[in-house]
Design a protein that fits this description.
3 helices, Porin, 8-stranded antiparallel beta barrel, 276 residues, mainly beta, 12% helix
Length: 276
């Protein structure tokens, strides 16, 4: 009996070892992509606008107003030119995006929107010239502001280390913009003329920049980013008129001003993201 039990145990062990040897090896675990998929977060930073403003004036023909030839040309020349406008302030908002990773390379898409604290930059020019011997003083004030800014951009990145990403980014930019122009002109002969105009619009353009992002904890990353945005140029018309008390062309429009406002600037911001 003992010899029989021993033979059975020996046979069982041999079969078990042979079965185990025939089993396929377990595949190694697939590395987890810590950058892949959806993410979202918040950002804050500083905005420096590089807006520019200019006005081109076209005089109403002198014969139409019954004044000497060259009068309206001389006055309108005082309201043509560039007006320096500067604006700086803080920004803050949120972003969301999606990443794909292949080796050390990353491709993604990101959308963001933020408000700007800029209350509106302004600039004023003043000049005086003789128009047929009469000193005429012209004072013109322009204001420009961007109330919010959003982008939809692609990202192309390189992983310096598994947790440190550098990237370039660019794409669509859009924002809510406002601009205004106020003109006041006086002559020593009693001439008074004034006019104002305004633009309020949502404009689209482009944004381009780059940054770095660091995965400092599981599912959490911090980033620093620079963007230059350009929302293009918007135009509006101002038609100054002489006041009823003015000696020359009282109550009549004496020129047409086309004002052009170019909205652009630079952003430097930091943000934090959660990766789902």
């Amino acid at each position: 009996m003992r010899k029989l039990l021993g033979a059975l145990v020996s046979t069982s062990l041999s079969v078990s070892c042979a079965f185990a040897a025939d089993m396929p090896l377990k595949a190694p675990p697939v590395p987890v992509c810590i950058w892949c998929g959806w993410y979202g977060g918040v950002n804050a930073g500083y905005a420096n606008s590089r807006d520019s403003f200019s006005t081109a004036s076209t005089p109403v023909p002198d014969a139409t107003l019954g004044v000497l030839p060259g009068v309206t040309e001389g006055i309108s020349a005082l309201s043509s030119g560039n007006i320096p406008v500067g604006n700086k302030g803080f920004i803050g908002g949120a972003q969301a995006g999606y990443n794909w990773q292949s080796g050390n390379y990353l491709v993604g898409i990101e959308a963001d929107i933020q408000g700007l604290s800029q209350s509106g930059g302004s600039g004023t020019t003043a000049s005086t010239a003789l128009v047929f011997g009469v000193p005429v003083t012209s004072t013109q004030t322009a204001t420009m502001s961007t109330s919010y800014l959003g982008t939809l951009r692609g990202r192309l990145g390189l992983l310096v280390t598994p947790t440190l990403l550098t990237y370039a980014t660019g794409g669509l930019a859009y924002g809510g913009v406002r601009a205004s122009d106020t003109l006041f002109q006086t002559g020593t002969n009693g001439f008074i003329g004034s006019g104002s105009g305004m633009l309020s619009d949502t404009r689209a353009g482009w944004a381009l920049g780059g940054g770095m992002e660091w995965m400092f904890a599981p599912r959490w990353s911090a980033k620093a980013e620079y963007l230059h945005y350009d929302l293009g140029t918007g135009s509006f018309i101002t038609t100054p008129v002489g006041t009823p008390t003015s000696i020359s062309f009282s109550g009549a429009a004496y020129q047409t001003n086309v004002s052009s406002a170019h909205f652009q600037g630079d952003l430097v911001r930091a943000g934090i993201n959660y990766h789902f």
